[in-house]
Amino acid sequence: MDILSSGLVYATYTVYLLLVIVGFFTELDMPQIGNVSLATTMSGALNSVELEPVSAIPFKEAKWAENTFPELGRRRLDYVYRKADPSTGLVRHSFKVTFPTLKSVVTDPGGPYVPPPQLDYPSAGELTLWVHPRSTQAQREAVVAAYMRSIQENSTFSALIASVISGRSVY
């Protein structure tokens, strides 16, 4: 019995050492992502929400979410990377923001039952950038500026987006 127990101790210790060694090698491959701050208002005081990293797979995807309860109502940011398309050579970077709205549930204050939260509807937006590996930094920035700077500077493009948000047609 003593040989069996000492064999189990050595086996356990060996497995532990292997896990530690694998952990050291994979630690260098782990992505270093931090919190992301998203604005939640178009005008007036800048209100923002802080999103914490949830998961990341290098050169594939990353996810951020609020650290609030219930989980169903957390605001999220998802990033997806796709390799170059063989026919065009374009690499795809997609950013998707989701702001869920939960149903308002009426409960009986005297009752013992409290229903779980339910999703009423999500509000979402996606920004997808297609980048060619041979493009310059200035060319990539020009494409991003067409969206970000045009919205910030209160241009006609910003008015076009505002009309869509208000439920009107663009033409």
Outline of the structure:
This protein is of the alpha+beta class and 171 residues long.
Notes on the structure:
It is a single chain. This protein is an alpha+beta fold and 171 residues long. It has two domains: 30 residues; 125 residues, MS2 Viral Coat Protein, CATH 3.30.380.10. It is 30% helix and 30% strand. The chain contains three helices and six strands. Strands 1-2-3-4-5-6 form a six-stranded antiparallel beta sheet, with helices on one face. A hairpin with an 8-residue loop joins strand 4 and strand 5. The protein starts with a helix and ends in a 6-residue tail after the last helix. The model has no long low-confidence stretch (mean pLDDT 83).
What topology emerges from the helices and strands here?
Elements (H helix, E strand, L loop, with lengths): L1 H26 L8 E4 L8 E10 L3 E5 L10 E7 L8 E12 L16 E13 L5 H16 L3 H10 L6
Antiparallel strand pairs: 1-2, 2-3, 3-4, 4-5, 5-6
Just give the CATH class of the largest domain.
Alpha Beta
Task: Please tell me what the overall shape is.
Answer: flat
Q: Could you report the average pLDDT, rounded to the nearest whole number?
A: 83
Radius of gyration: 24 Å
Care to count the β-strands? 6
Strand order of the largest sheet: 1-2-3-4-5-6
The structural class is: alpha+beta
CATH topology of the largest domain: MS2 Viral Coat Protein
Helix and strand pattern: HEEEEEEHH
Overall domain count: 2
Contiguous runs where pLDDT drops below 50 for at least 5 residues: none
CATH architecture of the largest domain: 2-Layer Sandwich
| Proportion in β-strands | 25-35%
Total helical elements: 3
The major beta sheet can be summarized as:
6 strands, antiparallel
> In percent, how helical is the residue content?
25-40%
CATH H-level superfamily title of the largest domain: MS2 Viral Coat Protein
Q: What distance lies between the first and last C-alpha atoms, to the nearest angstrom?
A: 84 Å
